Amino acid sequence: MVKVGQPGRAAPATDDRKGRIVSFMRGASTEITPSEEGQLPELASVLPAGTAVYVAHTPNASFAQVIHAALAVRRAGFVATPHIAVRRVANSQTLRAALSELRAGGVDDILLIAGDAPRPSGEFSGTLAVLESRILEESGITRIGVAGHPEGHNAVATPLLWEALEVKQAFATRAGVSAHIVTQFGLNDGAFKSWERELVRRRIHLPVRVGIAGPAPVTKLVHFAIQCGIGASMRVLMRSLSTAAHSSGLATSPDQHLLALLATPVSAQIVAPHFFAFGGAVATARWMRKIAAGEFDIDAEGDQLRLRS
Description:
By secondary structure, the protein is α/β, with parallel strands linked by helices. The protein is 43% helix and 16% strand. The protein has one domain (24-292): Alpha-Beta Barrel (TIM Barrel), CATH 3.20.20. An eight-stranded parallel beta sheet has the order 1-2-3-4-5-6-7-8. The protein has a two-stranded antiparallel sheet with strand order 9-10. Helix 4 (92-104) links the parallel strand 3 and strand 4 (109-113).
């Protein structure tokens, strides 16, 4: 008989959490940049066919390069999901032509975002303008991802972010398309849980892919947090980079995120993680494969994963 307090008593909870992590990882998605298109053969040797691979519209890439890379992702056997950063799209004609090219190449999924351009380069100031244009309904695209911001955005007021999600859910219902939310990556697990509760309160029921930063040094996280306008975590990071990795209030590695998120079962609305690779697609994919295969142990304190060699 095992008494309370004996070492064996904690094992079932740890095993349960490991099982939840492995199960959650089965639907995991990740991303490439257009410049990583040449790495697709190696990526295909690491990730299972049918994995959702998003194509990020990075600052130095053109819209045409994003579309080209998405078609290559589809040919590699993945579910290609290109970022459609509407503030970087020249005009309606360009958008229509790109969506038509995607559909002809077997791509049915997009992630519709405003993008990080400080000013629109064309006629679209944001995603709502595209939804109102009816271009998406006419394109035949059937699955649309939209952005969620658990930690807010430096350039957009939080009430406006929530109103936008409500409008996008209404659009999906009206247009008969399948929509889901991909959250921006963050470092504050508490902020995500608060945001999840607000989803319920506002009756936003779209499936959620939780954005998590893949394996990366803290300095790289700071760089991309600035680019993405992340609020709460950014302020904590900037106070002290030297202690950020050890802060109990932050998760600066993907394993810390998974352990915190899955300490207890998540709601059915939280369907899978999405790993931001930050230009390290293959390294992130290799890490994902090990976690999905259960090739890790949870340390005695329950706050770190140990990958098996």
